[in-house]
Amino acid sequence: MPNDDADAAWSALMALARRPDARAIRPLFAADADRAARWTHRAGDVALDLSRTSVSDDVLAALLRLARARDVTGFRDRMLGGGVVNPTEGRAALHAAQRGGGDAAVQATLARMQAFCGAVHGGALCGATGQRFTDVVNIGIGGSDLGPAMVARALWTPAAPMRAHYLANVDAHAWQEIRARLDPARTLVLVASKTFTTQETMTNAALVRAWLVDALGEAGTTHLAALSTNLPAAAEFGIPGERVFGFADTVGGRFSLWSAIGLSIALALGWDGFAALLAGARSMDEHFASAPPESNLPLLLALTEVWHVNGLGYPARAVLPYDERLARFPAHLQQLEMESLGKAVALDGGVVARASGPVVFGEPGTNAQHSFMQLIHQGPTPVPVDFILVAKPDHPFADSHRKLLANGLAQAEALLVGKSAAEVRAEMAAAGADAERIAAIAPHRVFTGDRPSSVIILPRLTPGTLGQLVALYEHKVACLGALWNINPFDQWGVELGKVLAGGTLAALEGRAVAAQAATAASVAAILRLQAEG
Ligand SMILES: O=P(O)(O)OC[C@H]1O[C@H](O)[C@H](O)[C@@H](O)[C@@H]1O
């Protein structure tokens, strides 16, 4: 459907982006002593500082005009109200409802999950030999792995009730590595799959079930539970109804950690931790639903991305948590953002008129500084960065933590202020370099500056603050879907490879010849190497 207002808003935005100073950030600080404060927005425990971007007052006004023209708040209200916002699959997107609002089915599932955790932790539910469960293995991939694995990695401490292990890859090296740490008699196994048909997960589930039965006999199968929307398939796999935790197909995989898919989190951290995670996310939902656009954190994060991707043509973004516990947070966002927004077809079936979801990648700081940050500082195309800092650590080593935070803030500052050729030359001269060396080396040591970053500061990493952080990014993704007129809740792009894998498997088993020439050649090369023994 033509949207003249949106076209006009896009034109106005792109006109601002064509101004020669559109990328400049330093002059915005020079012109406004209050910029850092004025561009820092808060919701609950999250402080989002957008001052180190070239979003100025007039750019923000143009972005907010676009948000109005694209009716982002209408989309938000339809999503939170249970409307069909995923039209290609004819579904609502009800992940926020899983966080324990008023929905009776959600409350019933949460109550069952809580009772199960209580029984496992209290020893009422034990393994086949009567021993208590000390370890839980979550078998799942994509959204049935990344969210729970990220949260458990972030919040687990040695005082937690159980250890959690995440088996995703069909590469059985992964299972071998995890298996070495486990005693089958004390291991609970969750088969986590929305569809209960995913090849990798079902293959791993069969391996792990065989391991349980080998060690414990048929009684070993009582260690299995299932998290799925496909109750018949879970039953067919041999998991009785009382150990199947369902959820609705209106919860997308990458948004599913809040549903039964989060059971490994609750088992590993304890129910109170999981409940606090949900409550944190709920508080971000409330902010998203009610804060005005100009102070609405998810919307502001989305609009900043539009400026970077569409206005300035930056095709990637890095996520750098300066907190080792958030090591898997970039991986979670990779799926959340790229599976949601990596689309070139608009909702009306036409071609998306402009760039959409950027490449998202990241690593914890400071490690990232010693690997890919070179490109972000001096590569030809700026890469906006999200820095995530946590003010107070949960360890007693204050000096280490100060160094960690100092590095994070220094990276953001280096990207912003840069270092001019004149500065480099003066510095080299002061250090005694001769004119010839200065001329040769100085260009290599220049930093352009004016490279954007967003800085998010949390007071502490807790279930509550992590819940807020994850929900912030989820709602940012929803806003971008509305702004770009794409469906952020489907993922048709993962299908073709899955289907073709059936044919390549037949070729590798020697049952067929691959039709595509390069695939056939690769299969032949692998079969030759395997035959050499
Ligand atoms: O939970 P499952 O049905 O096993 O799906 C696991 C994952 O695989 C799919 O291919 C999708 O790309 C993901 O969105 C999903 O999370």
UniProtKB/TrEMBL annotation:
Signal peptide (from-to): none
Matches recorded under Gene3D superfamilies: 1.10.1390.10, Glucose-6-phosphate isomerase like protein, domain 1
Keyword terms: Cytoplasm, Gluconeogenesis, Glycolysis, Isomerase
Active site: 339, 370, 498
EC number: 5.3.1.9
Its biological purpose: Catalyzes the reversible isomerization of glucose-6-phosphate to fructose-6-phosphate.
Protein name: Glucose-6-phosphate isomerase
